[in-house]
Amino acid sequence: MSTASTARHAGGPGPDTGPDGHDARGGRLDRIVRSPLGWMLTGLVGVGLVSGLTATGPGPVPVLGAVAAVAVYWLVMRRVARRSTPEIARRGAGREVLLGGAIGLGFVLVSALLITAFGGYSFSWAGHGFMAVVWSAVMVQIGTAVTEELLFRGLALQALEQLWGSRAAIVVTGMFFGIAHLGAPGASAWSALAIALEAGVMLGAAFLWRRTIWFVAGLHFAWNTTEQLLGIPVSGHTSEGLFTVDVHGPAVLTGGGFGLEAALVPVVIGVLLAVRMFVLARRGDRLLPRRSARHAQAG
């Protein structure tokens, strides 16, 4: 029997045992899981699974899915990442949802009005049951807004921010937000770029400014719901709305079959809003520079 195996059988530290006698392999695995990339991937799997099972469910199922997704997010952050979760704090959540919702509503209405003024859209009453349409839109869009913001801003942006700083994190998550919409009906390279700029970057800047999921979820919810109720496709997906929209003119004006989000007007407005929110975040000292991010990761 070799000396090394004798030491292991005698209870002494082996090649996979740390100085304190604990399994070094377990320690390495623990460090990997608790690293920013580790807890990000864990959370993406957990929240993504909840979203996949509930997003298209009937009635209030998407809302129940959003509640479950918040619970999964909390567990991952507290038990795996071992960090507090002020971004989902209940205190002030209502105010943040309303503020974000007002910005999202204004963003879509101004964009749609400008496109209509340029001759791109014309609207007519659809004649569907008012309450049934509104109820369905609200249920679905609450689930979409909350789960997507937990995935992209709560998990991905905050994890990458710890590794590379706020500026890099907002660019990377914005790019992936655009790529994630490439599978939508009518999507193209331009629509992916448009989504990355007006939604991915803007929502990232919004989160950095307010540092709360409720603000960006409110913005996202109002944006999607307003589009759906106006009868405009939401990222290529057409659902029953209160109005029907007739589209006239080039896709650069109207967004074509993908909807308003692939039009030039909301891209310009979204970029302007993103710049403003980013400036406010910087003034409020809410950005994490790359050097501080590396120091936080090392600690």
Automatic annotation (TrEMBL):
Top-level enzyme category: hydrolase
Membrane-spanning residues: 37-53, 59-76, 97-123, 129-152, 164-184, 190-209, 221-238, 258-281
Region called Disordered, residue ranges: 1-27
EC number, as in UniProt: 3.4.-.-
Alphabetic keyword roster: Hydrolase, Membrane, Transmembrane, Transmembrane helix
GO molecular-function terms, A-Z: hydrolase activity
Residue ranges of domain CAAX prenyl protease 2/Lysostaphin resistance protein A-like in the record: 133-225
Pfam hit, one: Rce1-like
Alphabetical list of PANTHER family matching this protein: MEMBRANE-ASSOCIATED PROTEASE-RELATED, PROTEASE
Name of the protein described by the UniProt record: CPBP family intramembrane glutamic endopeptidase
